[in-house]
Write a structure and sequence with these properties.
By secondary structure, this protein is α+β, with helices and mostly antiparallel strands. It is 27% helix and 21% strand. The strands form four sheets. It has an eight-stranded antiparallel β-sheet with strand order 2-1-15-14-13-12-11-10, sandwiched between helices. Strands 5-9-6 form a three-stranded antiparallel β-sheet. A two-stranded antiparallel ribbon has the order 3-4. It is globular, with a radius of gyration of 19 Å.
């Protein structure tokens, strides 16, 4: 059905891809290509867990919405309500600004110490931000994609839930949805089952590039999951199993235009249109991994693509697949 679009990944000697196409709750197409682990020759499958990179942000946003529904926080609260130690620049930034990338908070990657080799944690992001004396712009004035904002959101989850971010995700999202292989990975604390390792194309083949200095920051990109588990996640978004309809719709309402023509940003999602339909989507890129999810809820169509190749050319695929399903 879609095999001709995915031949690049169909190799028994290269890192690969897991794909799932969902239509009306049915798994229309699901397959693994290539290898999850080159060293041991383990193939990619439907339960292979990939580092989601920025697809994590939709889960971080959902954690915040769950706490809002429980009245443990408000989206209009300001950063000093959670981090009283922050400098004055944080006083007008709200939770909603963080969710929508309109906070203006400095990117932590831009202020990391040179030559850093030790892993950075979400708490380290806060420490780096404490040293800053300004933001990029007045909160709410502009959109600027911010990994720093989502690291702060993970810390807000911890401070208001009284639990670790990883545990809150497991107890409040993953376990209730039956996403039994999904987790926010903490090196030395947790183990990723059926793990895909990340690779980058080099001269003569692929090199293992599974982790970098920022790979341990959880709120912006630290979740591992499979297409099988993401099926459960996708289906839950049509229901009130996690949060009420009002909050789900709010999360998928664009606030500011983004760098992608025709797309705005909600809470952990880009929102645009394709084929005249609302498209709710996100991509992820990190050392060794490229990921994509595109949802067309008006037609109950979702395309999920998870690759353990850095720089994999996934961007055209969701639309090409959607065209075949909807126009074929």
């Amino acid at each position: 059905m879609f095999e001709d679009l995915l031949t690049e990944f169909d190799s028994r000697a290269a890192p690969g891809l897991s794909v799932m196409v969902i239509r009306n709750g049915r798994k229309l197409f699901a397959r693994g290509y290539g290898l999850a682990n080159l060293e041991d020759g383990i193939p990619c499958g439907l339960k292979t867990n990939f580092r989601l990179a920025s697809l994590t942000k939709q889960f971080t946003a959902m954690a915040i919405l769950i706490l809002a529904q429980r009245r443990n926080l408000s989206l209009t609260e300001h950063l000093p309500d959670f981090f009283p130690e922050l400098p004055r620049w944080g006083r007008n930034i709200t939770v909603r600004h963080l969710l929508t990338h309109t906070s203006g908070v400095v990117d932590y990657e831009a202020v990391l110490p040179k030559g850093l080799t030790l892993p950075v944690l979400d708490q380290d992001v806060l420490r780096l931000l404490l040293r800053q004396d300004k933001t990029y712009f007045r909160p709410g004035a502009k959109y600027r994609y911010s990994n720093s904002g989502y690291a702060l959101l993970a810390l807000i989850v911890e401070r208001r839930s009284g639990n670790t971010f990883a545990r809150f995700l497991k107890d409040s999202i993953f376990a209730p949805l039956g996403m039994n292989g999904t987790l926010a990975y903490e090196e030395g604390v947790s183990t990723v089952p059926n793990r895909a390792f990340g690779y980058t194309r080099r001269a003569g083949g692929f090199a293992l590039t599974d982790q970098g200095p920022t790979s341990s920051v959880l709120g912006d990109g630290g979740i591992y999951s499979s297409v099988s588990d993401l099926y459960q996640w996708d289906q839950s978004l049509y229901t009130e199993q996690l949060v009420c309809r009002r909050l789900r719709e709010e999360a998928c309402t664009p606030v500011k235009r983004t760098e992608f023509p025709g797309s705005g940003y909600g809470y952990g999602w880009f929102i645009g249109k394709y084929l005249g339909l609302k498209e709710i989507w996100h991509y992820g890129e990190t050392v060794g991994f490229t990921t994509w999810i595109a949802r067309f809820p008006e037609r109950k169509l979702t395309v999920i693509l998870l690759s353990n190749r850095a720089g994999a050319e996934l961007a055209p695929l969701p639309h090409l697949i959607a065209e075949r399903v909807l126009l074929g």
